[in-house]
Amino acid sequence: SFVSREQLATENAMMRLEARKRISSSEFSEQRRARQSLPCWMERQKIVDAVANNRVLVLTGETGCGKTTQVPQFVLEEAEVQGIGAEVHIVVTQPRRIAAISVAERVAWERGEAVGKSVGYVIRLESAPPRARGSILYCTTGILLRRLQKADGMAGVSHVMIDEVHERDVDTDFLLVVLREILENHPSLRVVVMSATLDASVFTRYFNCCPLVNIPGMTYPVKVFFMEDLPQIMRQNSLVASRLNMARTSASDEEDVDCELVATVVLFVAQYCGQGQGAILVFLPGWDTINIVREKLLKTPLLRSLMLVALHSQLPAGEQRAAFARPPPGVRKVVLATNIAETSVTIDDVVYVVDCGKIKEKQFDASRNMTTMRVQWTSQASARQRQGRAGRVQPGVCYRLYTRATYQAMQEHQIPEMQRVPLEELCLQIKAIATPSVVASTASGDDGRAMFQKEIEYASSTGISDIATFLSKAMQPPKSTAVHAAIKVLQQLGAIDQCQNLTNLGKTLAKLAVHPRFGKMLVYGALLGCLDPLLTIAAAACFRDPFIVPVSRREEADKMHESFARGPAYGSDQLVLVSAFNQWSIANAVGSGNSFCEAHFLAPTTMRLISGMRKQFERTLSEAGLYEPWFRTSSPDVGAHVARSLLTAGLYPNIARSELCRESKGMKNATKHAYRWRLGFRVQNGRVFVHPTSVVSEKHLNPSMQYYLVFQEKMQTSQVFVRGCTLLPPLAVVLLGWNVTVCNDAGPTVLSGDWMLLEVEGWLRFHIDRRAGLLLLQLRH
Ligand code: ADP
Ligand code: MG
């Protein structure tokens, strides 16, 4: 928007005045004291100069040194006192939603303001944006990427600061590629890349050897012990010695963690180190191991002097806060954490780190269409990061429950997310990013025809022309097989054409901000007037599973979960969610949403997020001309039945057909009776079982019947499982699958009179009434 020179001058002068007040008045003394105690403060001038003199700057400093809260402030304040405050608008990206809000609130407080004036935030579904000029915006990386879909997305932005780049999440890596291109076309834009890990050479190299500023931390030395050192230092304790011998004989790189050993070392530290002082931080791969170690520690006589807390990203914020509490005198804090405690959160009083060296990581293999969830060794970089957590208040100790040789064999860095996840969403976003050619084509045209012409031009000229070429410019590009698999899915969904041009459907799918598979279901749902259940299904796909399973009340939770699988939601994980959401909505409308959640083991925050996301989808669909509020089915049951079939339109070719399989019962030399029959499922190339968390359970299915299901994800753990399953009529596959080939198109196999056999894609066979089958074949043409 246009702003006159006079107004800019007025704003500049006003900001200068306010800045002076903040620098001197006693009203801000508390804020000043807090800020001046941070390591960042000592480097203030150096940072300000480096930002002013370089277009790109990499800034490193350990968690808590003040990068996120101070660096944007330094830059804004410097401009304020120089009388050019209104010319600054800083966008700071955060990988996590919660961080964006809490940091904005903190910085607003430091500036003596409420959020939404010179400091604000925008995250999906929630925003308190700051004023356009003279301000700092904290937003999630995804929000900035969305803004870049508009040709003027960067208008008015003077600085972009990308925070927590060391996490290497897809969005951040993607944004880095885009920014590198944007820097060429925006001569005044400045970029600051901020990382909590010290080794930032990957980032400086990526930006053409740009300068690096490191903020020295206030860290103390940390002594490191490896597995082979433990017997000597723990000689006092015979129990430890015997445990260690056992642990050393078991293979060290198997998947699981020796929880007994972890507990033993924790108890050793609690008992013999530091005279009861100094918190112990334990790194474990996930929820299950945290719970096992916790159970073991709960049984010790030492428990009275311990304060046990778990720290896991799935814990509600309130429970996470317990990890930061100071224990009463004589009580020792033991924090059992995932790698969330590695960089994202900092517990101030840690002196001892016990590192099992493992991490649980999800990896997607595009060539097998398979997700694996494996516990594996971390990297050397994260081992060092974990070690550093012990030296924040005094010299610390780190116990690594693995050998030096294992450490040497670890990879240097973690594999970035871009190389581990399905890439459809990313590829679609790449196509939707506005490029200078789009700016030119949208600038002209006035009458209706020109508008139409523009639409077509947009559809054909938008974005980056070749996805693979673009992705090859990423810091660590994904495998080309993964990229091509994603492109193929997008083409089959109709989001891009054979030349990778974004189609009109693709344009809508990109705006929907959900995986295009779910976007496509939404579009179908809107056109067929059964949007409601699909809104819930798609919204839920954006967040974590709302069903909570507390370890101590697992059975109860499972029973409650299954109770939603009645009526139209029978045999469908997606529709169970819809049913739970609908019942919650009714309860929530009369103010009892939270108690409903408690009784039904649902996460209230997730339910609210789903509700908000549904509204956003509705808005986007109606903006795309796809949604008329009156065009809805009145009965939720009918909607659910249609939705069941429509899942195929998005999830194809993730289809499975039931099949009895013989499974040996664990005995090696299987005799005649040593196996049992199980209901498994056949997929395109292989056999799978339904994951135990699914409501589609063997115990509810009749082994002599033939079932068909559609699934969201194929996952390898101990076996290959499918998750997110819905039983469906096979006809839906023929009608709604993508480019389905029905093998007996030419001459249908007629079986006993009135039946015919349809063979879809060469493996999905089913019997159908002959007349219906012939009709169906005709409809497909
Ligand atoms: P970094 O980005 O380098 O990890 P931050 O700028 O986020 O560091 O935080 C610097 C310091 O500011 C923290 O160590 C903490 O003491 C304080 N701080 C940050 N956010 C909050 C908050 N929401 N409430 C209280 N203190 C905070
Ligand atoms: Mg930070």
Describe the structure.
There is one protein chain. This protein is of the alpha/beta class and 781 residues long. It is 42% helix and 18% strand. The chain has 31 helices and 24 strands. The strands form four sheets. It has an eight-stranded mixed β-sheet, sandwiched between helices. Strands 9-16-13-10-12-11 form a six-stranded parallel β-sheet, with helices on both faces. A five-stranded mixed β-barrel has the order 17-18-19-21-20. A hairpin with a 3-residue loop joins strand 20 and strand 21 (720-727). It is globular and about 95 Å long. The structure holds adenosine-5'-diphosphate (ADP) and magnesium ion. The site of adenosine-5'-diphosphate (ADP) has 13 residues, from helix 5 and helix 6.
> Globular, elongated, flat, extended or rod-shaped: what is the shape?
globular
Q: Portion of residues in helices?
A: 40-55%
So how many helices?
Answer: 31
Radius of gyration: 29 Å
Strand content: 15-25%
The biggest beta sheet, please? 8 strands, mixed
* Structural class assignment: alpha/beta
Order of the strands making up the biggest sheet: 4-3-5-2-6-7-1-8
N-to-C terminal Cα separation, in Å? 52 Å
Strand runs, count: 24
Q: Unreliable segments (pLDDT under 50, ≥5 consecutive)?
A: 249-254, 436-449, 451-462
Hetero ligands: adenosine-5'-diphosphate, magnesium ion
Q: Name the average pLDDT.
A: 87
Enzyme class: hydrolase
Keywords: ATP-binding, Helicase, Hydrolase, Nucleotide-binding, RNA-binding
Family: Belongs to the DExH box helicase family.
EC number: 3.6.4.13
